[in-house]
Structures are given as C-alpha cells and as structure tokens.
Amino acid sequence: MKTKSLALTGVLLALGYVLHAIMPPFFLGMRPDMMLTMLFLTIIMFPSLSNVIVAALATGVITAITTTFPGGQIANLVDKPITALVFLGLFLLVSRFKLNALTAAILTFAGTIVSGSIFLGTALLVAGLPGTFLSIFLAVVLPTAAVNCVVMFVLYPVAHSIRKRSIPPQSKEAQV
User: Fold this and answer.
1) Is 131 helix (H, G, I), strand (E, B) or coil?
2) Are the C-beta atoms of residues 158 and 38 closer than 8 Å to each other?
3) Is 0.85 surpassed by the pTM of this model?
4) Domain definitions of the chain by residue range
C-alpha cells in the first residue's frame, strides 16, 4: 500500500465520518450511512486488496463507534468488510468495460443495498430490530442507496480528476 493512496484513503474516510456524523435520522432514529460512499470511492480509486481491507476495517470501526442503532456496533464490524469485498468484486468486473460517473453511481447503489441487507440481517440476529426488516429496508436502506448514488455521481468526476493528477501514469495503481 503506497503512502499516497493511504493518505487519500484517510482523507476520504475522514470526510465520510463528517458526513455520517451530520446526517439527520430518517426513520426510528436511524440515519443513512454516508461513510459507504467514501468507502466505495476509496475502492474505486485504489482497488488493491490491501487498501480495500484497511479501508473496510477503518470504516467498520468508525461506524461502529458512531452508530446509534441497537446492536449496530457488531453489525457494522461484520457488514463493512464483507460489503467492501463484494463491491471490489463488482468493481473489477465492471471496470473491464467502461467506468464513468454513472457506472460508479450504479455500483454505489448496489453496494449500499448489499451493505444495508448485511447490516440489518446481522443486527436482527444480534439485538433484534426496532421494526420489521422490510420497513427498515424500505425506509432507511433504499433512501440511503439513492442518496449515496447521487453523491457518488457528483463526487466521482472530481475524485477521478484528482487521482489522475496525483498518481503518475507509469504507476501500477494508475492502470486499474
């Protein structure tokens, strides 16, 4: 893992933490997970397995510390690494064709659905849910997926431009 990619990963996750902390609750005191967008952007920018694992673990710990969801600590620690690996797999499949802001947004929508499903399933097993799985999924996960999708659509071109300028073309990381 290169120092530059580690530093940019840290900046993106810090930005995700701020977005996560200021986001108001949607339903039954639950708020959307804006850290996911930054995790996914990190994976898109630096798709090495080592970077994905570090970013996923850091995201899991940060969201576990800041969650207000009952049983959310364990659910976040389970959800983020699995989601990150699934997202990496989807990204590697899609990046062979063409990656643009729309593709990144669609991947983010799918990744958020995966994350929300794993999170709710884990929380259900650990502590139970304050409502039904379906009601929470419809009221929190789907709107979060939509918001994350829009945020990624806006941020991807900016991040892609920054990445092109910060990583020399001959670098291995720049070739993905």
Assistant:
1) coil
2) no
3) yes
4) 3-175
